[in-house]
């Protein structure tokens, strides 16, 4: 207006500006920075104030001013005429930007809901939105999108979902993404289990013995099999038993196959079958599980045959060869001991003619089918557990804890992971390394040479639904139990879990006598003096820092101590923990101690025993006095 807009000759020398000065600022704040004075013409629509580095109120004065002092008091007269002041104040309020943090990524196993835990936006506002989802999946339902800790339901499809947490402070926004990986639980993290039942789930048989594979094809209960209560012999899990010709599981329409026509080429397949079983009769015969186009469940059939692991499958082509294979007598089942039995038919081996690999507790025997043409099948829709006819007929003579079918040949690594999962759950000693689902060695037989007897442990491995909170070897005569501090009548009743996924605390012993044999004098403990320790020594492999656990031994030893040592040479300078606390589990009174068992540590037990002539460890001693 003053420079040539209305009249190019009017007030040519006048140059009006706004002068900005700081009145006050938040404590500790730096001085704001203004644009140069010669950039603040009246005709400028905006100006920038920077370096507002602290939240709070900044107060500024603004004054209409002349840049050229020779012009005269034109502004003074103009403002006086209008009744306005040449100067005034204004405030700028600075708020701290709240950054968004959606929280860590999560993996959900076997569940369709979760709770988000983003950061609390405080005075700002937040909102959850769905960014991406698996193809074909429905949108999950966010209960309260504006709440940082809202519940979310409807994760009904496996795959990865991504959500965005947006925090808005004034006109400023900050975003953070969170992924949810939804997977079906898998044994040993081997994908594609086609059938999976297990008896360690809570509840009655109708809810506990269900198919955990993605097929969710539950197998009907014939004759009323019940779930037996958990006990020490089954590593504190329930189990199924008392199978007979009238009591078993039988699905006449299994989804393992789409047809019951035995010539259909869709049934030509390699297969891997796993079971955790406990025979209770010597030299017995009976079916664990099988499938067929009829009730015989023999195509293939997985059985115990005269006390040994056995598989039958009629080949249907090729020259004369055995339709079945049985492991050698050296690898027979042990009566009243939980075992892991695997049977794999791999069509790709032997130049495409196939091989069978039978395994019992990590010991394997391979059966090469020679040069004859062969095609493996998984035949029919009649799936059975616990009883069948034809080859090795009859009811399984004992207890069945778990059964898995894969319609493919598992790799050696996958087989070991499934074996490890089943062994840790059932207190079974394997003749191979124990692996977690990420293939980490959680019990290394080479590193622990000399201590590979009676191996067991507690563990948490989410992807395989393993949370063994208390455990002991289920080998004959074993008494030691290690538990979280919630030691209870069953694993499910133990309310104290391991803190983190992929934690394993495993132990094995040197195979010597678990009784007071070796001299060890200790006289300064609160539980009385000792004169001997167990001949047996245990070694520990602790993965991902399992903390305090309960070590339990049935009450029977006087002045009992748990003795921990960095090496296998025990002395009175090692750590002696009195086992004075008594806990009754399944009717058995245990002496217990709560300790941390460090990785690579050794432990044993010490106590006081009277001995004839000072010779400890008699196996029988009666005296008439």
Work out the helicity level.
under 10%
**What is the rounded distance between the termini?**
127 Å
Number of strands: 45
Mean pLDDT metric: 89
What value does the Rg take, in angstroms? 37 Å
- Alpha-beta classification: mainly beta
Shape assignment: flat
Looking at how many chains there are and whether they match, the oligomeric state comes to: single chain
Number of helices: 3
Tell me about this structure.
The protein has 625 residues and is mainly beta. The protein is flat, with a radius of gyration of 37 Å. The termini are far apart. The mean pLDDT is 89.
Which short descriptors sum up this protein?
625 residues; mainly beta; 9-stranded antiparallel sheet; 7-stranded antiparallel sheet; 3 helices; 45 strands; flat
């Amino acid at each position: 207006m003053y420079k040539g807009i209305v009249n190019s000759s009017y007030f040519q020398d006048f140059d009006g500006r706004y002068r900005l000065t700081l009145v006050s600022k938040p404590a500790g704040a730096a001085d704001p920075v203004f644009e140069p004075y010669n950039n603040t013409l009246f005709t400028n629509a905006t100006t920038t104030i920077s370096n507002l580095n602290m939240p709070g109120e900044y107060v500024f004065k603004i004054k209409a001013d002349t840049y050229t002092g020779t012009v005269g008091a034109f502004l003074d007269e103009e403002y006086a005429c209008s009744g306005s002041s040449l100067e005034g104040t204004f405030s700028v309020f600075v708020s701290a930007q709240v950054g968004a943090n959606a929280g860590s990524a999560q993996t959900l196993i076997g569940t369709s809901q979760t709770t988000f835990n983003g950061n609390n936006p405080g005075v700002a506002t937040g909102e959850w939105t769905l960014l991406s989802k698996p193809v074909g999946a429905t949108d999950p339902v966010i209960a309260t999108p504006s709440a940082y800790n809202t519940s979310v339901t409807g994760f009904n499809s496996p795959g990865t979902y991504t959500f965005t947490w947006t925090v808005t402070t004034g006109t400023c926004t900050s975003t953070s993404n969170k992924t949810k990986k939804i997977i079906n639980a898998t044994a040993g993290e081997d994908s594609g289990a086609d059938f999976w039942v297990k008896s360690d789930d809570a509840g009655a048989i109708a809810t506990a013995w269900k198919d955990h594979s993605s097929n969710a094809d539950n197998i009907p209960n014939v004759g009323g099999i019940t779930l037996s209560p958990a006990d020490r012999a089954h590593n504190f899990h329930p189990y199924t038993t008392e199978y007979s010709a009238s009591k078993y599981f039988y699905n006449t329409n299994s989804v393992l196959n789409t047809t019951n026509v035995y010539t259909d080429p869709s049934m030509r397949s390699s297969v891997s079958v796993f079971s955790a079983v406990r025979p209770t009769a010597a030299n017995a015969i009976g079916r664990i599980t099988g499938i067929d186009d009829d009730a015989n469940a023999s195509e293939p059939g997985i059985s115990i045959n005269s006390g040994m692991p056995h598989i039958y499958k009629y080949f249907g082509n090729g020259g004369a060869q055995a339709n079945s294979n049985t492991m050698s007598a050296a690898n027979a089942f042990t009566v009243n001991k939980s075992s892991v039995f695997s049977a794999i038919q791999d069509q790709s081996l032997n130049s495409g003619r196939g091989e069978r690999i039978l395994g019992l507790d990590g010991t394997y025997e391979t059966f090469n089918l020679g040069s004859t043409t062969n095609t493996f099948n998984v035949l029919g829709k009649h799936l059975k557990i616990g009883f069948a006819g034809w080859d090795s007929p009859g009811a399984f003579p004992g207890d069945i804890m778990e059964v898995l079918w894969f319609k493919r040949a598992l790799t050696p690594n996958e087989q070991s992971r499934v074996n490890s999962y089943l062994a840790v759950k059932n207190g079974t000693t394997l003749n191979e390394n124990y692996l977690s689902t990420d293939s980490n060695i959680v019990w290394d037989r080479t590193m622990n040479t000399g201590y590979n007897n009676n191996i067991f442990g507690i563990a948490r491995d989410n992807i395989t639904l393993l949370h063994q909170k208390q455990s002991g070897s289920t080998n004959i005569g074993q008494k030691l139990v290690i538990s979280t501090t919630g030691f209870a009548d069953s694993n499910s009743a133990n309310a104290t879990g391991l803190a983190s996924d992929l934690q394993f605390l495993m132990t094995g012993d040197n195979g010597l006598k678990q009784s007071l044999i070796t001299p060890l004098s200790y006289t300064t403990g609160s539980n009385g003096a000792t004169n001997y320790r167990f001949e047996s020594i245990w070694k520990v492999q602790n993965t991902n820092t399992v903390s305090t656990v309960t070590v339990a031994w049935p009450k029977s030893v006087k002045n009992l101590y748990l003795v921990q040592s960095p090496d296998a040479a025990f002395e009175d300078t090692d750590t002696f923990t009195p086992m004075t606390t008594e806990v009754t589990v399944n009717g058995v009174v245990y002496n217990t101690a709560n300790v941390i068992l460090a990785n690579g540590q050794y432990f044993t037990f010490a106590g006081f025993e009277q001995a004839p002539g000072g010779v400890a460890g008699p196996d029988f001693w009666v005296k008439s006095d």
